[in-house]
Amino acid sequence: MKLLLRIIIACLPVVLLFSCSKKTEDASMAPMAMVDATIQRYLFAHNEVAIRDSFGLYYRIITPGDSIHFVRDNSIVSVNYTNQLIDGTTVDASFDVTNFNNRTLKNHIPGWQLGLRKISKGGRIRMYIPPVLAFGSTGVPDIIPPNAILISDVELVDIK
């Protein structure tokens, strides 16, 4: 009886460790899995094709650009863009070329930081940006709801 009790006590930390780690993994994976499923349903319903990168950004390169001039963290990008929610609501657009008051790329949302590196000057890209790479659980009050998937159509006009 004492031997069985010692075995149970010795195994208890291992069992607890594995059960806790699985719950933590499932909790962190579920939101991204749901976002992926939502984006994939959207793509299927709209007969669109996109690539998913290792960060979870879905994108389609419409025009690759000049293949010479690429953005860096400190680049100031001049773009034409439209941002919409997955339900089709347009939430923001440039309506002309903008450089966001000389804001560097590293100060844009992570989805744009990743996506604009996939094209060069003159290129166009459509990005399906999960909340974690956009405005997260906060959103932008009265503009972009919390946990919103953002669809960004961006033309990279110039780089400084």
From TrEMBL:
Q: Which Pfam families match?
A: FKBP_C (PF00254)
- InterPro entries the record matches: PPIase_dom_sf, PPIase_FKBP_dom
Alphabetized UniProt keyword annotations: Isomerase, Rotamase
Q: Which SUPFAM superfamilies does this chain map to?
A: FKBP-like
Gene Ontology molecular-function annotations:
peptidyl-prolyl cis-trans isomerase activity
Under Enzyme Commission nomenclature, its number is 5.2.1.8
Catalytic activity line of the entry: [protein]-peptidylproline (omega=180) = [protein]-peptidylproline (omega=0)
Residues passing through the membrane, by range: none
Which PROSITE patterns does the entry mention? FKBP_PPIASE (PS50059), PROKAR_LIPOPROTEIN (PS51257)
Q: Where is the PPIase FKBP-type domain?
A: 74-160
Top-level enzyme category: isomerase
- What is the recorded name of this protein? Peptidyl-prolyl cis-trans isomerase
